Amino acid sequence: MDRKPRLLFVVHEALFFTTHRLPIARAMVQSGFDVHVAAPVEDDGPRRKIEATGCTFHPIPLNRGARSITGELKLVAALWRLIRDLKPDITHHVSMKPVVWGGPLARLLNVPAAVFAITGLGYFFIRRGMVVAAYRTLIKALFRFALHHRNSVTIFQNGDDRDLFVKGGLVEADRVAMIAGCGVDLVEFAATPEPDGVPVVMFPARLLGDKGVNEFVGAAEILKREGASARFVLVGRRDPINPTDIGQAKLDDWVARGTVEYWGFSESMPATLAQANIIVMPSYREGLPRGLIEATASARAIVTTDVTGCRDVVRDGANGLLVPVEDARATADAIRRLLADPALRAQLAQRGRAIAESEFSVEGFVARSLDAYRKVLPRAALP
User: Is the domain of 211 the same as that of 252?
Assistant: First the structure.
């Protein structure tokens, strides 16, 4: 080969790549690979951060929430041209659209090796109804074609998603790798003592119905009516292209009524988490939520739901409390219990930090990701 081996990442969001996959890209650059990243352009900040690692960035017309035929055809055409022209030795497709559209193209264009990351199944696998079921059938067919690339490995973050794909024939069991989450920097996300004063109960996620924001606010309303001494805080961005985005009017109403405070999107989650006493994310389904891993590493007691992904990070009674999904009352009960028992919070926090150190370090995540690459790359390509 007269050039460096070439890796192409295809991802649904540049910001997501900087928070979830940048350490792998950096490791691959250091290993001698020519690394390229294809993602839609939201703003220049994530793009600059990606390029600063030595990667080449390629903007693509991927709209996460759109489902127009024209838009999807534009995306497919752009990916076709990019893969055809770059001729990567390996592609790494992260999340649903990059897998279901980029994966089949990698197969059709004879990319020698492919890695797929299933980071969560989202709206079409949570919701019910005839239209959603029709989309789900199509998506499964595309998954099946993509994941049967002749030299590929598919990474799952939790056993439930893996079993769903294997039992459904979407992927072969011997082409699967399990990597829990995306790892966090345990120095950056250090264990810090709880702040003094009125306890802060924090929801750190996008403001989506499927993330459980309505149940969080419902729990806040219950506890405030009971006279609980606590501040309830939302930290995260809206996502208007997601079908379960809460909308600006609802957010403004919650804040105006004094139910919650809205701190917006945080550029420094370690400092933000340090201001919280309890973390709450009553999500409906996850791959493996980074927000909960960050909270665990930061030594915070957690309330979350007993659903796929969330229970893979939070073990009931060990580093947090699990509650039923879509249950604001149960969420309120768990928060009340933690508010009343600082010693329990400290116990859960200490155990959570230990879990983060043993299971969720960024170094471990990178090492396991490179092991997945070695399954499909020639032995000499990656030390």
Answer: yes
**Segment 309-337, tens digit of pLDDT:** 999 999 999 999 999 999 999 999 999 99
- Are 204 and 235 in contact by the 8 Å Cβ rule? The answer is yes
Identify any residues that bridge with 35 across adjacent strands, giving them in sequence order.
7
Q: Are residues 167 and 224 in the same domain?
A: no
Burial of residue 336 (CB within 10 Å: 0-12, 13-18, 19+) is: middle
pTM of the model: 0.85
Query: For residue 67, what pLDDT is reported?
Result: 66
| 102 & 144 share domain | yes
Q: Hey, what amino acid is at 81?
A: R
- 307 within a domain of the structure (yes/no): yes
Q: Which pLDDT score is estimated for 124?
A: 57
202: left (phi over 0), alpha (psi -120 to 50) or beta: beta
CA dist list (Å): 184 to 119, 190, 264, 269: 16, 10, 22, 11
Residue 189 is assigned to a structural domain of this protein: no
Whether 195 maps to a domain, the answer reads no
Name residues whose C-beta falls within 8 Å of residue 43's C-beta, 6 or more positions apart in sequence.
Answer: none
pLDDT for the residue numbered 64: 65
Length of the chain: 383
Q: How far apart are CA 132 and CA 280, in angstroms?
A: 28
Q: Are residues 18 and 84 in the same domain?
A: yes
Low-confidence stretches of the chain (pLDDT beneath 70): 1, 64-67, 122-129, 131-132, 380
The reported pLDDT for the residue numbered 107 is 96
In a domain, 173, yes or no: yes
Q: Where are the beta strands (DSSP E) in 56-184?
A: 56-59, 90-94, 113-118, 152-156, 176-178
Number of domains the chain contains: 2
18 vs 102: CA distance, rounded Å: 20
255 is in which domain, residue-wise?
200-359
Question: Where residue 52 sits, what CATH number does that domain have?
Answer: 3.40.50.2000
Q: What is the rounded distance in angstroms from the CA atom of residue 23 to the CA atom of residue 336?
A: 38
| Residue 111 zone, left/alpha/beta (φ > 0; ψ -120 to 50; rest) | beta
